[in-house]
DNA sequence: GGTTTTCGGATATGATATATCCTTAATTCC
DNA sequence: GGAATTAAGGATATATCATATCCGAAAACC
């Protein structure tokens, strides 16, 4: 059970977009360069964010991506589910139905106990991600990343933001 | 991020083994038949349980599997990790290192904030699974499964247990 | 009109999950 | 001792999914 690397990419990109001044856009090219990622493939992750309405896009030479709402209104789960999908990690294939002792036509009323427990764990994972806002990540980063690097990075970004 | 179906299989098999009388073994063949699963492939899941020391095995005509310890001493995480592995679902590929603004040779002191948050969610998932014992599942099942089916199933199992 | 950009579709490649087969060694039963 | 049964593990095949690249269309900017 491994999340795709697109999840990491999307999170880092959102953190950068969160620092963008109102109304400016940042292109896939800039985001790919900044993170050392394949531009074409990163583009797919950004498209997922766009389809989930987490970011707005515009075309043309000064186009690119920006957050669709305030970074305090976007949480980690929004981003993770945008690229990873919202399907549960555990799927019940109902093998209990194959029990040869079961009466013909017998139908279970509830989802089975095994699945319910696994789904509970899934919910705990989701709840943790739901509680962390993108703005929280930005706060942490702005404290942890050396001030010099933090500033030069946003200077670099602003030079490329349309 | 999808768990393999072996996880479901292992959980159901453990629930059955938990109902086995002291010292008896149940073969892969019986477990596969009971759940309608490919015997050879289910065998791989059971081997994983064996390598994790969750079950004991014995060879020969009356051989098979039994729990290595009491069902109250085995939790869901034990079983899930036995077949799924214990690697974290999120891996930090350190793309922050690719930032062109970083000074040469600069080395980060801690794991990055993104990874720490994702790992926290992972821990929440694991903790939930850790809190549920195999004996808890058996209790739930014994209440939920119709008494008739529950009894006939264990009669079926006992007839095949060596 | 030419350039730059997002978007979607097509396609290729690699890794992993799923599944089967076969050999070996241990155990039971006769 | 010999035959039958079983788990363990290696080899292999197939399907699905993650990763990655490429291209054409449409939109925006100059
Ligand atoms: S029948 Fe297996 S998890 Fe529901
Ligand atoms: S650098 Fe991306 S998660 Fe650590």
UniProtKB/TrEMBL annotation, chains A, B:
One Gene Ontology CC term in the entry: cytosol
PROSITE patterns in the cross-refs: HTH_RRF2_1, HTH_RRF2_2
InterPro entries: TR_Rrf2-type_CS, Tscrpt_reg_Rrf2, WH-like_DNA-bd_sf, WH_DNA-bd_sf
GO molecular function, one term: DNA-binding transcription factor activity
Pfam families (alphabetical): Rrf2
UniProt-listed PANTHER family: TRANSCRIPTIONAL REGULATOR-RELATED, WINGED HELIX-TURN-HELIX TRANSCRIPTIONAL REGULATOR, RRF2 FAMILY
Protein name: Rrf2 family transcriptional regulator
Source organism of this protein record: Rhizobium anhuiense
């Amino acid at each position: 059970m491994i999340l795709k690397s697109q999840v990491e990419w999307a999170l880092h990109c959102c953190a950068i977009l969160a620092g963008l001044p109102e109304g400016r856009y940042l292109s896939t090219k800039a985001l790919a360069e900044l993170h050392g990622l394949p531009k074409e493939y990163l583009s797919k992750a950004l498209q997922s964010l766009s389809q989930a309405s987490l970011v707005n896009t515009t075309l043309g030479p000064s186009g690119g991506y920006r957050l669709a709402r305030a970074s305090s209104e976007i949480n980690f789960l929004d981003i993770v589910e945008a690229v990873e999908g919202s399907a549960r990690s555990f799927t019940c294939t109902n093998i209990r139905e194959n029990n040869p002792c079961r009466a013909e036509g017998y139908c279970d009323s509830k989802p089975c106990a095994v699945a319910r427990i696994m789904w509970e764990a899934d919910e705990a994972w989701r709840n943790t991600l739901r509680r962390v806002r993108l703005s929280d990540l930005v706060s942490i980063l702005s404290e942890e990343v050396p001030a010099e690097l933090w500033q030069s990075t946003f200077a670099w970004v602003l030079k490329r933001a349309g």
